[in-house]
Amino acid sequence: MIREHRAGFAVLGIRLAYQEPFGFLDGERLTATTTSSLLRQRNLMKSTTHISADGRPLAVVTLLCRALAVDAARAMAATPRALPPSVTDHYQPDEIDDQATFTDELTPLLAHLAATAPALVQSSYHRLIDRQVCEAADQWFFVDVTGLIGSSREHLIDTLADKQPLLREGLRRRISHLEFRLRRPLFLHDRTTIDTTLHQDGTRLVFAHRINGDDGHLHGEAVEILDARP
Prior knowledge:
The protein has helices at 2-5, 85-88, 106-116, 145-160, 169-172; strands at residues 7-18, 31-39, 44-53, 56-71, 77-80, 96-97, 121-128, 175-182, 191-201, 204-213, 218-226. By secondary structure, the chain is of the alpha+beta class.
């Protein structure tokens, strides 16, 4: 993409929904089928991956990316810009919808939790963005966001489980749904605070996360929804 088309992508958000548990010894191989479409004047790319094993649906992963123009001659500098025809010409007409945009399910979910399932406990987890969670351009790497929010969840459990025994379920139950949206980048040696809250939504336990920078801005939001039973 960068060498031939001078284009790239910045990940804006991920949604991971598990369909059923699948352990290491439950099958010999996984099959992943991915489709891709272009949205909003070809400035956004949405990809959906269905993961299965022997015909059993296991998970669905939805990825939203912002298209970038990459200037390889200027230290890989990237500017938000619609994808060039050299890329979009590979898409079929029904894979391009210039009027559509990404359906944001995270914001309504967070609003629902705030209205119907107030936080039971809350804690703040402080983290320096060091090189091991950065990509080559010294910006935080989206893959490591799941590790950051997982560390914040375990920090909440470790510090407040004696006051709220329900927190221990956060170590016993499987994650059935994980979603995050990145609002602003974080760079090498930035300091971040992840505010994590526990909610009980019916039989589900939900951990909600707000990723804040020391610049006072919100950099990301995430939710982890745990199975109703261990």
